[in-house]
Design goal:
Layout: H1 2-24, H2 31-52, H3 54-58, H4 63-73, H5 75-78, H6 88-100
Helix pairs in contact: 1-2, 2-4
Length: 101
Amino acid sequence: MKKLLGLGKLLTALFWGAALANLLDPFAQPFAFLLYLTGALLMLVHGLELWLFDERLRGCPRPRLERVQVALFGVFHLLCLPPAQVSELAQGEVQLEAEHA
């Protein structure tokens, strides 16, 4: 699984490199427009991931670095993070439901 996530991160980094190269020296049409559109859509999706997983990222020891990596790699980095810690209140609720089952 780690190799697959690493490959995903590598391919995402290559995409961002191509998008940056397209900004500096645009490719032939329609490829330049498609790369702009894809880059904007990917930035929107990664921003949505940052918003949705904000609570989980706050619990990390280095939240700023984790946010930058999620902004660059998206779900490939989110899957590498350790599982979210369950709060004591939620643990008590789970225990109470387990006792009633």
